[in-house]
Write a structure and sequence with these properties.
heterodimer, A: 247 residues, Elongation Factor Tu (Ef-tu), domain 3, Rossmann fold, 2 domains, 6-stranded antiparallel β-barrel, 16 strands, globular, B: alpha/beta, 8-stranded parallel β-sheet
Chain lengths: 247, 302
């Protein structure tokens, strides 16, 4: 019985961009279970919502976890109105996250609301790191990567901020090159990155997303094909080696 | 002294609460609680060979419930016996294996292989709405349900539970047919066939378009059907469909169930089975019932 669910205390829950909130949760016991790239289940309390919301961990400290989430439905709307001091029901950290490769230059590629888990990754990487972040029109968390000592490149679909286009176009246009790649974002971006990294002969770790039921392996809802085998994203992922994922 | 134990099909159970098929993972669920505390584990459907299930997304939340279109993904009976059964046997609880199939032969292959194992009972799934051929075809046809029951009973050395579908006009007809052909027990209800459409993406939420509807929203349907089946047949009934707390367990037992399964609640809270058992214990104490039989006999009818 290594995993728990419990009510933890919210330290901060702030709007950081339109519809996007950053929540800091205090709970040393839960925080101690977290590793970079893992997620937690957040349990809405409204009686008509039934399933937990699995949300990636964006920052880990000894006593707190930080998540960054977008309001998209009933559950995240409920989370967004919680205040500092309120309780929220959460699980232990779940899944398998990123493994930091023993190389010199790391490339972190985030797409939209997939960017948050890369913040903790940037903080933990001690050598050179470059963050390439893509958004529709409004970047988030860029300052967090700068604070973590990363070089930051930004692409937006509309061209409102930074490069106009997607992250792969930006990587090629700026000739950004590294020894190892990590990514989290929408499926088309991850799929394109898998092929991009294959062509340049580099390894990439991809954090996948799928609609989950339970978030801990019981419902077998969130599977993907990894190495030819149907694999639970919530337990065996969400992070997988790009060359092993069959989209 | 409160006694939660029950006897069903000649077997003793420490309490009348089990997992529902497809909502428990022997590798993952015990990370949160000790399954030895529950009356039985009913496994995910096991088929004769590995099944991949349906494409994702295959989970959708609904108001007070959820849809799933997993499609009985499982590694097949051989890997089940090799990988999962040894872990299941470590816990001090009854093991009921849910058996899935597309043809009569599929079901029989699994049943024969499980004859050689220590599992306590088999639950024959003739009611999964997510498998296109076979499966539910047996569950919505009185004659086919009877034939399958007869054949499975002929070869099985274990007590047989037939899991019934609510997606029928008269569930008592199917219940009577399987009783007549020798079933030892029935479980009901499996999920109701449902659908959701994403009004912003303009497409069905599930890739499979339709899926099985479960959760508290379906509980009144389950209660009604158990009440009807209880009055149509004599077999023990395992009741399920939206149980979320101790009072729900009591409601199922009052309706005529002898045992209950808890499924969707385990997604809402991984500790649901433990919490529901404790909550049910409090309910029994509140009403001064000493055992399950006293509760089952307590229903007042005009």
């Amino acid at each position: 019985m290594a995993k728990i669910i419990k009510y933890a205390t919210i330290v901060e829950n702030t709007l950081i961009a339109p519809d996007i909130y950053q929540m800091v949760i205090y709970d040393p016991q839960i925080a101690s279970t977290a590793k970079v790239g893992m997620f937690i289940n957040l349990y809405p309390q409204n009686s008509h919502t039934l399933l937990p919301r699995p949300i990636s961990i964006s920052e880990i400290s000894e006593n707190t976890l930080t998540i960054v989430y977008q309001v998209v439905g009933y559950g995240t709307t409920e989370f967004s109105i919680l205040k500092s001091g309120d309780k929220i029901q959460i699980s232990s950290a779940l899944g398998k996250g990123y493994t930091i490769a023993d190389v010199e230059t790391h490339i972190l590629i985030g797409g939209g609301i997939g960017t948050p888990p890369l913040v903790e990754l940037a903080k933990q990487i001690k050598t050179k790191k470059i963050a390439v972040l893509g958004f529709k029109d409004e970047p988030i968390l860029a300052n967090k990567f700068l604070e973590a000592g990363a070089e930051v490149y930004i692409a937006t679909e509309t061209g409102k901020v930074g490069f106009k286009g997607n992250v792969i176009d930006l990587i090629q246009s700026e000739n950004i090159v590294g020894d190892y790649y990590y990514a989290c974002g929408p499926k088309p971006m991850l799929k394109a990155l898998k092929n991009f990294c294959k062509n340049i002969n580099k390894s990439v770790q991809l954090s996948l997303e799928e609609r989950m039921g339970c978030g801990y392996g019981a419902c077998v809802g969130c599977v993907c094909n990894v190495n030819g085998k149907s694999t639970k994203i919530c337990v065996d992922g969400p992070v997988f080696l790009g060359n092993e994922v069959n989209f | 002294m409160l006694d939660l134990s029950v006897k069903m099909c000649g077997l003793d159970f420490k309490n009348p609460i089990s997992t529902a098929s497809g909502t428990f993972s022997i590798k993952d669920s015990p990370q949160f609680y000790d399954p030895s505390q529950i009356g039985a584990i009913i496994t995910k459907g096991v088929s004769s060979v590995a099944w991949l299930g349906n494409p994702t997304p295959r989970i959708a939340e609904t108001y007070g419930g959820m849809l799933n279109s997993i499609g009985l993904e499982n590694p097949g009976v051989d890997l089940f016996i090799e990988d999962e059964l040894p872990i299941l046997q470590k816990f001090d609880t009854r093991i009921i294996v849910n058996v899935a199939g597309k043809t009569l032969e599929d079901y029989c292959t699994v049943v024969e292989k499980l004859n050689e194992t220590s599992v306590d009972m088999l639950e024959i799934n003739i009611s999964c709405p997510n498998v296109k051929s076979g499966g539910i075809a047996f569950g919505i046809n009185t004659k086919l349900a009877g034939q399958l029951t007869k054949e499975v009973k002929r070869i099985s050395t274990k007590p047989i539970i037939i899991k019934l579908s609510p997606n029928v006009t008269d569930i008592t007809e199917i219940a009577k047919a399987v009783e007549c052909e020798g079933a030892d027990c029935v479980s009901l209800i499996n999920t109701l066939l449902g659908m959701r459409i994403d009004v912003n993406q303009f497409q069905p939420v599930l890739k499979n378009k339709v899926g099985g509807f479960s959760g508290p929203a379906i509980k009144p349907v389950a209660i009604r059907m158990i009440y009807q089946v209880r009055r149509a047949i004599k077999l023990p009934i395992i009741g399920l469909g939206g149980i979320f707390n101790g009072e729900d367990v009591a409601e199922f037992l009052l309706a005529g169930a002898d045992f209950v399964s808890v499924g969707t609640a385990c997604f809402h809270n991984p500790l649901a089975l433990i919490n529901i058992k404790e909550d049910f214990t409090k309910y029994m104490e509140k009403h001064n019932f000493n055992n399950i039989t006293e509760l089952k006999l307590a229903l007042l009818e005009n």
